[in-house]
Amino acid sequence: MRIEICEPESGDRKSQATAPRIGSVIWTGVGGVRDLVEEVEREGLRLLSFADPRFFADDERGIRFCRDMRREGVNVLWSAHLTEAPSRALLREMRLAGAQQVELRMGPDEILESHAAAREFGFGIHLAHEDGTPYATDASGYTVEERRAVCERLPGLHSVQFDLAVALFKARRFREVMLPLGKAMTLGYPMNELCLNLLACLSAAKHYPDMAAGLLEQARYGCPHPVVHRNRSKLCAWLEFGGDVKGVRLLLDPSADCFG
Questions:
Q1: pTM score, two decimals?
Q2: What superkingdom heads the lineage (predicted)?
Q3: Which of 98, 88, 74, 152 is nearest to 119 (CA)?
């Protein structure tokens, strides 16, 4: 296997220049996780895409691959395309190894069961026919209760704690956001700027714009997600014009959106 670097696409030139790059993992039939680790470390990648369905077409091989990723300490978020119905065991190992999104490209007989299984582990899900045409229904939103259930199934996993924090924020249950968000950060969630961005959104929602500005300033270092630059611009413009009593509503991009 090898990795090709995909430069981020963004209409904002500044965001494009600093946004995190995505490593597209190419199937070659040779090589293993050690090769992946070396390229991830050399390129400083935090996001990967496994677009070739052969990586996870075989359950046993896919499970071994995911366990090897964990054993090697690969701490990245990634997406995968699946054309064969995955077992629940494979989906669980994929999630534990950092998978955030799956595209299920299957016929109607297989996709219902696969969709239900993927939801058990809180994946962002895209549904497509075997020819790649999207299904008419492609909703994969989760309630707070569903996110809590995923956390119980996968204790100690940083990404599901972050997803729960996002769900609580969207439900305007602001007092409850900090517990799962703190867990996500402590457990080593790799997109730290998204954690800081969520804290900034929380501060803005509670009418503390100066605190939000400070958090976004911290988040902008390195190669942050484009939402950080958009929120800094939005907040600066709001402050420049004196603000208003309604406050400023910042943008909250869930982690799955990192993959476009």
A1: 0.89
A2: Bacteria
A3: 88
